[in-house]
């Protein structure tokens, strides 16, 4: 089997062949850190984490970069509203991002470059474009000359004369052409800024990724990814900037995930229907959130509802029960997975082959999850036997672990808090409240909540139950 990837640039599936054997360079556009991330942000976070995990499963060494945009108009506005500096706001929400990242079971990227830490190389990049005639200065702003780059529009498939301007492309009378976009913005009074050959200012949005990706991964990336909303104008502009400068393709494979809808409607601030990851994590296991995100093909829209999330929770619980039953049946017995019964091992091999077949078909995670449930069925049939060969149980766990190392839709549950300890903590919390030690009372409440313990006030006193 050969891994095939749908390339947005060619609009077809292509055999994946990285530039260097055994190595993959992957750049995914990260968040603008002016607020908490929502589930639309989380979809590429989870999906491209799975891409990285699967490539590593296939023995590739993956250099994975996700950037932070830590200065722009939104950050400046929020900083004023919060009476903080732009770096303080950025630091606050980068920390929140990492908390959500951990909460979703996503390992850190190889690097998370920040715009403000790479200002010198961004200015140098713009200067080179000016020298080559692809950029021009007007009134302290620097614009990219799209008419000079003959392939502008190739990624999004738009004709330059018929372009529909996307987010962050402004109509400006100082531009030579309306579709020209800003590379450097002159600072307004009181705004955060950096010195440049064109005066005090800060970078435009698109130039940041071009400069940081080139610095960390070279002129051509193996994979450039992000949400479908970034295809135009952001990635289109990146293509124009980078390829004008280097004369090389910016990326061999462009990958874009689809939108998330909320109850059938597009998620948007104007509709007020956004769902923050930090809130979602309070109600659902991270394995359920990951399951939901992977339950549809990444290029298709995904519809969020409470009912869909509840179903995802039940699905991961079904998987967890099967895995737990296999581990319980094994209960410390020793064996060699290679000595599993040939007939059962053949069934496991077929499950794993189906899993890889689907993952190698453009990372088809919903069908890969179906293979996981095929494993659940085989495991449950095995457990119906009066006696289970330890080698069979170990072989089953080995196959499951390989699939789960990519999807991570199961994790070992933490040991439950004993009932006696719960009762003791409730008594301590009651005494703390009587003593008006609200901090300790809240601390105990949060501790119990983290363990899935719900407290209910009744006329007979406090009653507790597990979620």
From TrEMBL:
<feature type="binding site">
    <location>
        <position position="29"/>
    </location>
    <ligand>
        <name>Zn(2+)</name>
    </ligand>
</feature>
<dbReference type="GO" id="GO:0004817">
    <property type="term" value="F:cysteine-tRNA ligase activity"/>
</dbReference>
<comment type="similarity">
    <text>Belongs to the class-I aminoacyl-tRNA synthetase family.</text>
</comment>
<keyword id="KW-0963">Cytoplasm</keyword>
<dbReference type="InterPro" id="IPR009080">
    <property type="entry name" value="tRNAsynth_Ia_anticodon-bd"/>
</dbReference>
<keyword id="KW-0648">Protein biosynthesis</keyword>
<keyword id="KW-0067">ATP-binding</keyword>
<feature type="binding site">
    <location>
        <position position="238"/>
    </location>
    <ligand>
        <name>Zn(2+)</name>
    </ligand>
</feature>
<dbReference type="InterPro" id="IPR014729">
    <property type="entry name" value="Rossmann-like_a/b/a_fold"/>
</dbReference>
<feature type="binding site">
    <location>
        <position position="234"/>
    </location>
    <ligand>
        <name>Zn(2+)</name>
    </ligand>
</feature>
<dbReference type="InterPro" id="IPR024909">
    <property type="entry name" value="Cys-tRNA/MSH_ligase"/>
</dbReference>
<dbReference type="GO" id="GO:0005829">
    <property type="term" value="C:cytosol"/>
</dbReference>
<dbReference type="GO" id="GO:0008270">
    <property type="term" value="F:zinc ion binding"/>
</dbReference>
<dbReference type="Pfam" id="PF09190">
    <property type="entry name" value="DALR_2"/>
</dbReference>
<dbReference type="Pfam" id="PF23493">
    <property type="entry name" value="CysS_C"/>
</dbReference>
<dbReference type="Pfam" id="PF01406">
    <property type="entry name" value="tRNA-synt_1e"/>
</dbReference>
<keyword id="KW-0030">Aminoacyl-tRNA synthetase</keyword>
<comment type="subunit">
    <text>Monomer.</text>
</comment>
<keyword id="KW-0436">Ligase</keyword>
<keyword id="KW-0547">Nucleotide-binding</keyword>
<protein>
    <recommendedName>
        <fullName>Cysteine--tRNA ligase</fullName>
        <ecNumber>6.1.1.16</ecNumber>
    </recommendedName>
</protein>
<dbReference type="GO" id="GO:0005524">
    <property type="term" value="F:ATP binding"/>
</dbReference>
<feature type="binding site">
    <location>
        <position position="209"/>
    </location>
    <ligand>
        <name>Zn(2+)</name>
    </ligand>
</feature>
<feature type="domain" description="Cysteinyl-tRNA synthetase class Ia DALR">
    <location>
        <begin position="354"/>
        <end position="417"/>
    </location>
</feature>
<dbReference type="InterPro" id="IPR015803">
    <property type="entry name" value="Cys-tRNA-ligase"/>
</dbReference>
<keyword id="KW-0479">Metal-binding</keyword>
<dbReference type="InterPro" id="IPR032678">
    <property type="entry name" value="tRNA-synt_1_cat_dom"/>
</dbReference>
<keyword id="KW-0862">Zinc</keyword>
<dbReference type="InterPro" id="IPR056411">
    <property type="entry name" value="CysS_C"/>
</dbReference>
<feature type="binding site">
    <location>
        <position position="269"/>
    </location>
    <ligand>
        <name>ATP</name>
    </ligand>
</feature>
<dbReference type="GO" id="GO:0006423">
    <property type="term" value="P:cysteinyl-tRNA aminoacylation"/>
</dbReference>
<feature type="short sequence motif" description="'HIGH' region">
    <location>
        <begin position="31"/>
        <end position="41"/>
    </location>
</feature>
<feature type="short sequence motif" description="'KMSKS' region">
    <location>
        <begin position="266"/>
        <end position="270"/>
    </location>
</feature>
<dbReference type="InterPro" id="IPR015273">
    <property type="entry name" value="Cys-tRNA-synt_Ia_DALR"/>
</dbReference>
